[in-house]
Predict the 3D structure of the following.
Amino acid sequence: MLETKKFTFAEVAIDPSLRLTDKTFHYRIPTRLKASIQLGTRVLVPFGRQRLEGYVVGYSSHPEVDRVKNILEVVDETPVLNEEAVRLARWMSDYYLYPIPVALQCLIPPGLRRQEKIVVTLKLSDEVGHKLKETLNILDPVSGRVLAFLTETGRVPLERLIKKFPSQNLQETLNSLRELGLIEIEKLYTDRLKKKFRRVVELNKEVVGLEQDLEELAVRSPKQKKVLQILLEQGPLLLNDLLDLAGTSYSTVKSLIDKGFIVLNKVRVEEDFLRINKASSVKPVELTDDQERALRSIQNALAQRSFSVFLLHGVTGSGKTEVYIRAVEQVLKLGKQAVVLVPEISLTPQMVERFVSRLGSCVAVLHSRLSLRERSNEWQRIHRGEAQVVIGARSAVFTPVSDLGLIIIDEEHESSYRQDVMPRYHARDVAIQRARYHGALVLLGSATPSLESYTKARLGRYALLCLPNRVENRPLPSVEIVDMRQELAAGNHSIFSRCLQGKMRQHLEQDRQILLFLNRRGFAHFMVCRECGFVNRCSRCAVSLTYHRVEGQLRCHYCGYQEPVPVTCPKCGSRYLRSFGIGTQRVEDEVKRLFPDRQVLRMDVDTTTRKGSHEEILTAFRQGKASILVGTQMIAKGLDFPEVSLVGVITADIALNTPDFRAHERTFQLLTQVAGRAGRGSFPGEVVIQTYDPANPSIVAASRQDYLAFYKQEIALRRSTNYPPFSRLARLVISGGEEEQVIEAAQRLALDMELQIIKKREEEKVPVGELLGPAPAPISKMKNRFRWHIMVKGPKLAIIRELLRDVLDGWKVERAGKNSIHISVELDPMEIL
């Protein structure tokens, strides 16, 4: 760790949540603060005319400018961020090409930023105070009323003054009063999250001879005696609990406090929203031979206490989660901590339940659906070392564990591990970087690993572990592919094939459960006029509006714009409007029509917006309160329902035709994962895949659960087209409010990049790669901003990053104002939209 005393200046990142600047600034470290300032310390600094919070991210002996201001004060007793967090922010800044303050947004604890409160205080001198009436008389009426109000109250929050004098030009009045020396306006800072306290009652330890007092109280005040008796037997209690047990009121307790028998203390509390504190009596299952071999390799690597990456490739239902739990148990025995990442928030409750049942209250949970207070409480638990295991979605990779031994990334192939809004990052990249720092192990798990990860495993860069069979020798589900073209030819216009309808009846008669999967949301894709062909489109984005039948709305899923479903065509006035496409609402309605006596649940983005809704739906289904669950991607992976015997895939080939080189890989992964939800209990499973392209190799490989067959065919295609894993990609998106300006900027940027590529190739002999574009982005307009993009394909990401730095340093990349040009950089993009 660097010693502050050796340096005169600190590099400070202004609180990134204020969004004032992306730069860091140098401030002088006053002698009185040298012992208090470390990397990660939160400090108060002058910034223009303001006093703002910032974070120390570095030191210097020589500042970049001549005039340097002093740090004003240190906010916290101990640094908010540790040295590893600051180093990680610098690595993210360098790797993903954005400023350090942007990276800090991922690392600053939730709810930490203090709220600014402006307070107005009366400041009358003795001389003016004696002549207050004369002072009020010489002021204008508004100033007089404000000053009179302050005379009564003394100190008032500005927001209260605004409510008191809403129609007045208050700011001008306050400025005048301040210039006259009559008031003072200052900024105070309070914690954003107020600390919660509970009142706890306990016996006064200084009291002696309590038994004799109890005998006297029994005669004079039996209620007071009962309170003391309860505290003697049970020890300190929450005030409300004590009142309930004693069957009395607060006046009884108050009398005992006044007599000195008991004391009432305020104790800070942190709510345990998990409501699970102890490990249950669940016994570990017996491992298969494959699980034993995999676990033995992981345990041996953990014992080495050195950085390594393992890929656990196991078919669906092969027991990967049990291997995770055993590996975490080993980490805890070594006195270290573990982080477990899941791709979907919907998977978190199931994973938490499995881990807590075995490990108890040492488990913490972090994801975006928790309230700010819940996230803050969990972060503090982890920071204090009270939780040794952290489970959560991608942001949990930043948790402040101090002695990391293991990071598990379940379903490592999932694109949800990548954050596509600033600050952009991939949780797998960050996990590997953190593991390097700690000398920890990264365990990637999947039934359908990404081609990049599996290729690294085959090349020996990752250690490959295999679970080729399901636990208890359960068979993989039998899969049937249905050609929907033949269904139409036979006169079946339903969204369900005859095969799927028949199997649904059969499984329902046996009281089994069914999953119906659709890779869409909404009721139907769009509304179209059957007279003129008009389609309602978002005025701000270049996409059609999605029809939501229940709400009677057309909605844009990119910017949130919505409008009522029109009665007539906005273009020609025709009343012949029809919805096209299939959505989860429509599937749900069709199921209810076919099976009116069966309970149906739907799980998609629209039904899971409310806090706790994920868990409610999954719990209801697991408890058998519904026979059929209709859903999108969130039901396709990781979930374990022993009673599900049939899975129906409504439209298997929708994603095949998206403009993305990963389309076939995503289709294979999704179909394999959703098929794997069937037959995980004591009876065999069946899967029906409906498609208009039954011979597609991705669909055929998924129906056979044959990852190696898919890998061989897809890796050959990637090699021939030089796409990852045989190259690395970067994407620049140029956006702005004026289309002509965007096109011109994209063309100029592409020219600059092409010239730089030629220079590096000819002068520096560096094989940078090739430039693709510029071209309109697949979604060419979003939120009223036109979008073009440029792709760079090269052999090494480091070379691409150097190219982008060289080019973009000469560009002024502005904030995305209405008419500004904004350039965003995406490294290793997962989607190209």
Confidence is low (pLDDT under 50) at residues 275-279. Residues 312 and 445 are 5 Å apart (CA to CA). The chain has 26 helices and 35 strands.
